[in-house]
Amino acid sequence: MVETAVTVKREEMTLRINEIFYSIQGEGTYALYPCVFIRLTGCNLRCSWCDTTYSFHEGEHRTLKNIQNEIATYPTRWVEITGGEPLLQRNVYELFDLLHELEKCVLLETSGSILLDKVPSFVHIVLDMKAPGSGESEKNRYENLKLLKPTDDLKIVVKNKEDFNFAVSLIEEHSLMDSLDKPAIVQPVFGALEPHELGEWVKFAKVPLRLGMQLHKYIYDPKQRAV
To answer: Domain span at residue 179?
Structure first.
């Protein structure tokens, strides 16, 4: 039987979870905050620089009650739901509501390939639009840009000047300088583009941008999982 709100109590609903871990947030507006990460299994993209390919297939089904119990063991308000692509699993929306009721600050990392229209307004969205170097830019749903709240984060990972130019054009063409409270993030592909080089492009860009970093890869071993 397919799980629905009618046939299954919310606490018994399940998500396929790749891992849950407690670490230091490495990216975006909440960088350096202690944060619980809930990584869901499955992704509809295959980005060339993906560093979590293990999330494509590894994982086990866990109930929302089980997830809640584990989260309760960590002393932080911040919880990020990530993947893979977390919006592929429909019960993620029940998880959003549960975390909100627990008075958590809920973050969502999503690729931009799935429409955001059902994501609750209390969720802080990190929208990771794909540059050409990812090999998946054709999957971008550009209508998602209009669904971002001013407080959300827009991120574009770049590995070269072509990707950077894509980011600048994206900001210009969609007038995002006016709709977001803070500049979009451009983040270098770790190990492929030096942060200082990207920083120079950011300094002289014709649109406001923020230099993003995967700070957890500098705090911890960059090959280590669950950080």
So the answer is: 10-219
